[in-house]
Amino acid sequence: MSLPKVLERIDKACRRASRDPQAVRLVAVTKEHPVAEIRERVLRYGRFPLGESRIQEALSKMDELVAEWHFIGPLQRNKARFAVRFELIHSIDSVRLAETVARKAMENGKVQRVLLELNLGREPQKHGFLEEELPEALAQIRAMEGLRVDGLMTVAPYTEDPETVRPIFAQLSRLADLYRLPERSMGMSGDFEVAVEEGATLVRVGRAIFEPDT
Ligand SMILES: *Cc1c(COP(=O)(O)O)cnc(C)c1O
């Protein structure tokens, strides 16, 4: 595919769901791609937020490229001081991590925007809160000075048929509504259209932008 093709598909998915395309932002996932390629395949089309999943790799790109950087991968507490350089952290998956990020944000005199990651597929290998852990965790994290919880994020189980994960996306939207959280970060190359139909406000797409044939 290509970035314009992804945008076109987001647009069509919005139409099908009677949603305003302006309410969906494409986060271009740039992990494993060098800066020159990011310019060529993403930034020539506009100033899209860029998503990275490893701190070390992200930091070197951030030195070279001014952009709205999002952190989307598993975050270790000892890297929190770097994570507060991102505009939005999608992957807060424990109260302890939130505490550490909040502390680093305050040391930097900023309010860090974050999303809480949910493991709605209940996969043991995946990160994120279980649904039943959310109310308590959200209450604790929302009370932390230095953080602003803007929404929820999930990585759906891997599937060949994106229809099978539609209920997961619907559930994330339902929870975001319930807790009055505006952002829903869901949908990747294989399933972003279904995620948009189910209410995604941020889709995280890598392969479909960078691999010509997906
Ligand atoms: C890599 C990654 C993506 C993008 O996945 P693609 O299949 O390349 O679109 C989205 N979210 C997270 C958390 C990722 O690590």
UniProtKB/TrEMBL annotation:
Q: Which InterPro entries match?
A: Ala_racemase_N (IPR001608), PLP-binding_barrel (IPR029066), PyrdxlP_homeostasis (IPR011078)
Taxonomy, superkingdom? Bacteria
Give residue ranges for domain Alanine racemase N-terminal. 12-210
Question: Where on the chain is N6-(pyridoxal phosphate)lysine found, per UniProt?
Answer: K31
Q: Which Gene3D superfamilies match?
A: Alanine racemase
Q: Does the keyword Acyltransferase apply?
A: no
For this UniProt record, the keywords arranged alphabetically read as follows:
Pyridoxal phosphate
Q: What Pfam families does the record tag this protein with? A: Ala_racemase_N
User: SUPFAM superfamilies, alphabetically?
Assistant: PLP-binding barrel
DNA-binding is among the record's keywords = no
Query: What this chain does, per the record?
Result: Pyridoxal 5'-phosphate (PLP)-binding protein, which is involved in PLP homeostasis.
The record ties this protein, via PANTHER family, to: PROLINE SYNTHETASE CO-TRANSCRIBED BACTERIAL HOMOLOG PROTEIN, PYRIDOXAL PHOSPHATE HOMEOSTASIS PROTEIN
HAMAP family from the UniProt entry: PLP_homeostasis
Tell me the NCBIfam families matching this sequence. Answer: YggS family pyridoxal phosphate-dependent enzyme (TIGR00044)
Instruction: Tell me what this protein is called.
Output: Pyridoxal phosphate homeostasis protein
